[in-house]
Design a protein that fits this description.
This protein is α+β, with helices and mostly antiparallel strands. It has 8 helices and 9 strands. The protein folds into 2 domains: 107 residues, Dihydrodipicolinate Reductase, domain 2; 127 residues, no CATH class. α1 crosses α4 and α6 packs parallel to α8. Bound molecules: iron/sulfur cluster.
Length: 290
């Protein structure tokens, strides 16, 4: 297998400096819906200027470049260990080139590793494909402020009268957005997982954040819930950065995982407006980014 370290560095550069087109378009639509001169409109204008500058200068969109989360689907026969080593080398190099801020802190000593490598960081998820499949890598940079307002509920949740059904899910997701107001850098995107366990709930919820904003959930009842929650979240009026306004959330993306009979977790992975995701596909030595 050829060495893909430089291809990984470019993937990281793109994720960190070039906001996806669908998210940028959502920012523009949100700005155009607000009254000119309002706090919401000014905030969104400043964000859009920042996005354009970051792209033009190849500099991070936000000072917090987040946790790098790699989803790797590799063809059978390729070594995931080697891919991991190359991705880690790329993370260190991307930090040296200032595409990433040194973000990995030893939780006991408080010491920053300086290169974004440490225990549990970056995060990797590997999946094996068929031998003839391309290598596919999706990268998500998950900022800390948005991570702080992510939340997991165990249903039934008495304070909201949220039972173990989709109405219960709806209630806790709205509660999560209400609680996050003023934090987490709205407008945000919600990745939601119904089910799983405490750990896989967050993994599946974050995977939802890789979906484009305009996709439609193939499960009709989840598609309907996503649409309803998007409307209702925006009716809360939290607005950009919590200043009030018509757009609080750009998208709600819901997945479901199997669970134990005793458990019914609903996990809400909150993603800020800086929804930095990028993909690359490698086949026969050719790298394609999207
Ligand atoms: S929450 Fe997002 S936009 Fe806000 S500081 Fe963190 S990474 Fe940046």
């Amino acid at each position: 297998m050829e060495n893909l370290t430089e291809a990984f560095v470019e993937l990281i550069r793109r994720a960190s400096t070039d906001l996806p087109a669908d998210v940028e378009a959502a920012l523009r639509t949100a700005r155009d819906r607000e009254e000119a001169g309002s706090a919401a409109a000014s905030t969104l204008t400043a964000i859009l200027e920042n996005v354009a500058l970051a792209r033009a200068r190849s500099q991070p969109i936000c000072q917090d470049t987040g946790t790098p989360i790699f989803h790797v689907r590799y063809p059978a026969g390729m070594s995931p260990g080697s891919l991991r080593a190359q991705a880690e080398a790329a993370v260190a190099e991307a930090t040296r080139r200032a595409y990433l801020r040194p973000n990995a802190v030893d939780s006991l000593t408080g010491r920053n590793s300086g290169n974004n490598l440490g225990i549990g960081i970056p995060v990797f998820h590997f999946e094996e494909g068929a031998p003839e499949d391309p290598l596919e890598v999706a990268l998500l940079l998950k900022g800390g402020g948005s991570e702080n307002v992510s939340i997991q509920y165990s249903l039934p949740y008495e304070p909201l009268k949220a039972g173990r059904d989709l109405e219960g899910v709806r209630r806790v997701v709205l509660d999560a957005v209400h609680r996050a107001q003023g934090e987490g850098c709205a407008p945000g995107i919600l990745g939601v997982c119904i089910g799983g366990d405490r750990g896989t709930g967050y993994t599946h919820a974050k995977m939802q954040l890789l979906r484009p904003l305009d996709d439609v959930n193939p499960v009709p009842e989840l598609a309907a819930l996503e649409e309803r929650l998007l409307r209702e979240c925006n009716e809360l009026g939290v607005g950009p950065m919590g200043f009030g306004g018509k757009t609080t959330i750009f998208g709600v993306k819901i997945g479901a995982a199997h669970r134990l009979p005793a458990c019914y977790f609903v996990t809400v992975a909150y993603m800020c407006w800086a929804c930095r995701r990028a993909r690359m596909e490698v086949k026969d030595g050719t790298v394609v980014y999207s």
